[in-house]
Amino acid sequence: MLLRSALHARGLRFRLHDKRLDGSPDLVFPRFRTVVFVHGCFWHRHVGCKVANVPKSNVDFWREKFMTNVARDARNKAALEQKGWRVLISWECEINTVSKAATAAEELQVLLNERQMPRAP
Ligand SMILES: [Zn+2]
Predict the structure, then answer these.
(1) Mind giving me the DSSP string for 59-121?
(2) pTM of the model as a whole
(3) By three-state DSSP, how is residue 27 classified?
(4) What are the residues whose beta carbon lies below 5 Å from ligand 1 (ion)?
(5) CA angle 95, 22, 45 (to 5 degrees)
(6) From CA 14, how far away is CA 20, in angstroms rounded?
(7) Orientation of helix 98-113 relative to helix 2-9, angle to 10°
(8) Which of 14, 42, 61, 105 could, after both became Cys, cross-link 6 (CB 3.0–4.6 A)?
(9) What is the pLDDT of residues 53-95, one digit of tens each?
């Protein structure tokens, strides 16, 4: 995953797919109390993204499926936020080249630094 290597290149360390957290976020930055979900634009309905089209056949099936996914994402986000996590989303179309991933990693690092947790004594 391009984002992962771009983050590593910036010296950021994280856990992957932490199953103890709601929705097992793709990237977990415990020290910053921040999680990142890397969402595929099609399945998770990136608003305004051309990848997030609705297939022409079985329209009802797809609408139902998408609604379920989006509702689940919202539930996970709310549950994590209630536990004090900040929840960030990276959309696939925004990190699918080396240069886009590098930009995303840079932005993420800025966001993380806004929220550095004090180290345990
Ligand atoms: Zn997208």
Answers:
(1) HHHHHHHHHHHHHHHHHHHHHHHHTT-EEEEEEGGGSSSHHHHHHHHHHHHHHHHTTPPPPP-
(2) 0.89
(3) strand
(4) 41, 46, 49, 91, 93
(5) 45
(6) 15
(7) 50
(8) 105
(9) 989 999 999 999 999 999 999 999 999 999 999 999 999 999 9
Q: How confident is the model at residue 117 (pLDDT cuts 50, 70, 90)?
A: low
- Which residues on neighbouring strands pair with residue 39, listed in sequence order? 91
**What is the C-alpha radius of gyration for the chain, rounded to an integer number of angstroms?**
16
Q: Which two tokens stand for residue 4?
A: 């992962």
Token duo for residue 41:
């634009």
- Cα 119 to averaged position of ligand 1 atoms, centre (Å): 36
Residue 110 CA to residue 99 CA, distance in Å, equals 17
